[in-house]
Inverse folding.
């Protein structure tokens, strides 16, 4: 059962004691589950606790339910709406922070469609943000008809595989649903891909730990040897650095930038943990962090500030593909993915490229996009693996603090 804002702290931690770590990462630094419950009050509603703490309730609750669901799993929905014997109308892959919200909207959309027409779309839901699934090798598909009609994407994933691009994307089977004449920005538009939104990566600075060193203002500054062992990178403690910013470093500064960045990286953590660590006396903490603005704005520790890079916040794409001959037939799903889901992403401070979506990021924020020409001319997933490998060749040799 999903946790809601009205649930009591005592009940939540009794049923899910494993959430203690998430509360700790979010600034509730108590020595045990029992102490956490005593301090917050077992009968206190979660909403009250988050309001007092100044945390975004929707984002925190989504993180809780994602943790419970083992990596933003949308339990049960896949089997309710997926028939393996029929063509797939929609393949769902969402940002973890809004997965539960999207599930609710999807259910309402499907029910409304069934009531109106008596038919239901065939929906396949990927169990996790980066989970393997039976459609992931899109390039192996025998024909375009075997592929989902709408493919949602999170980050630089399998829809950017060069083999898939050459076989299907470049052949004109897909079309963007955004129109430059409606106020959408041309530099982010492509004929086939719909770049709807993107997580915007920024710097988070611990002013005290930075000391007399200058604030980094551009992404290239992070390669300066004056920041040796000062940077906390965005990634996974067990699996290593995330490849998203590495593409940008490589494009602008070459392969040698992997070694330079590795020299300056002190630790690698997920942004949810890093945002709570910044500004603390933790031995793991650093002076400079880079992470999506979504997480940076959750940090409420004193002496910590967000820096919007002068050359632009790096974009982690939230995009989708829709077959050209299915746009009209599946317009209700296209609207759900482009406008409803797009606004959900905007509400967690993602940058948006759809004129129908209300942006929530600071006005005037400059963005840095890898570029469609670059993406189409490179095998992005394979390049990402190579860049991670090169980074870890250097970083893994360093003595870990």
């Amino acid at each position: 059962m999903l946790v809601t804002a009205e649930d009591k702290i005592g009940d939540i931690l009794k049923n899910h004691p494993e959430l203690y770590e998430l509360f700790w990462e979010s600034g509730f630094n108590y020595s045990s589950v029992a102490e956490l419950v005593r301090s917050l009050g077992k009968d206190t509603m979660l909403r009250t606790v988050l309001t007092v703490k100044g945390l975004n309730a929707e984002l925190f609750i989504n993180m809780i339910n994602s943790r419970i669901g083992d990596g933003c799993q949308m339990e049960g929905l896949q089997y309710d709406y997926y028939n393996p014997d029929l063509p797939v109308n929609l393949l769902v892959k969402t940002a973890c922070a809004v997965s539960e919200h999207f599930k609710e909207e999807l259910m309402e959309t499907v029910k409304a469609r069934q009531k109106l027409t008596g038919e239901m779309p065939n929906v396949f839901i990927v169990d996790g943000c980066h989970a393997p699934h039976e459609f992931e090798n899109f390039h192996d598909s025998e024909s375009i008809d075997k592929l989902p009609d709408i493919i949602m994407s999170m980050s630089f994933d399998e829809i950017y595989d060069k083999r898939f691009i050459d076989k299907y994307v470049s052949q004109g089977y897909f079309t963007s649903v955004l129109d430059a004449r409606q106020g959408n920005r041309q530099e982010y538009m492509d004929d086939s891909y719909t770049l709807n939104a993107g997580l915007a990566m920024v710097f988070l600075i611990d002013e005290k730990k930075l000391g007399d060193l200058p604030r980094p203002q551009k992404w290239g500054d992070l390669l300066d040897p004056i920041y040796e062992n000062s940077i906390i990178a965005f990634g996974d403690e067990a699996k290593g650095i995330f490849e998203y910013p590495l593409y940008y470093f490589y494009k602008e500064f070459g392969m040698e930038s992997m070694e330079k960045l590795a020299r300056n990286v002190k630790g690698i953590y997920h942004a949810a943990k890093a945002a709570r660590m910044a500004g603390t006396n933790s031995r793991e903490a650093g002076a400079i962090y880079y992470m999506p603005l979504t997480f940076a704005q959750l940090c409420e520790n004193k002496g910590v500030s967000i820096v919007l890079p002068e050359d632009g916040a790096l974009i982690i794409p939230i995009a989708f593909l829709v077959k050209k001959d299915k746009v009209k037939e599946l317009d209700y799903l296209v609207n759900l993915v482009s406008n409803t889901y797009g606004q959900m992403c905007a509400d967690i401070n993602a940058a948006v490229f759809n004129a129908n979506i209300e942006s929530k990021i600071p006005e005037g924020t400059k963005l840095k996009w890898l570029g469609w020409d670059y993406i189409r001319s490179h095998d992005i997933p394979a390049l990402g693996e190579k860049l991670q490998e090169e980074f870890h060749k250097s970083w893994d040799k360093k003595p870990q603090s």
Q: What stands out?
A: The chain has three domains: 9-68, 77-198+316-369, 199-314+386-395. The two ends are 39 Å apart (CA to CA). DSSP finds 16 helices and twelve strands in the chain. The mean pLDDT is 89.
